[in-house]
Amino acid sequence: MLADMDEGNPIAYEVLEQGVQVTASDGVEIGTVVHVLAVVERDIFHGLVISTPDRGLRFVAAADVASLHERGVDLSIDSAAASQLSQPSAPEAIYDADSPGERKGWHHWIRVAERKGDWNRER
User: Are 55 and 110 in contact (CB under 8 A)?
Assistant: First the structure.
């Protein structure tokens, strides 16, 4: 199935939402975002775990991600290469929003004012 949708504005990995459509470089929709793998404190983006309709969860390395948008992720690999993506190794890092008041630094308050969540690694 060829992708033909408005993906919205470019975004950073920190605000990429679960369920966003992932499209290979040849326009084939291959799955949806499950979660982002990153070390946010060091601004290191490792990649994505995606859910595919036929192969389950798959890991997409950051090097294979061409761009992130509000409503779409574009890969730099085609659908044939995407069909060969490996399963994520366990345990995967999952980033989730802090509970209120957990972070008190200036980054936290800027994100609160912008109505964005803080992201922490769950173990």
Answer: no
**Class of residue 1 by CB neighbours under 10 A (exposed 0-12, middle 13-18, buried 19+):** exposed
Q: Per-residue pLDDT tens for 40-76?
A: 888 899 999 999 999 999 999 999 999 999 999 999 9
Q: Which helix (H) or strand (E) holds 106?
A: helix 106-113
Instruction: Give this prediction's pTM.
Output: 0.70
Number of residues that make up the chain: 123
Alpha helices in 17-100 (DSSP H): 79-82
Q: Quote the CA–CA distance of 111 and 5 in Å, as a whole number.
A: 29
Distance from the Cα of residue 87 to its chain's centroid: 15
Selection from 10, 3, 8, 4 nearest residue 30 by Cα: 3
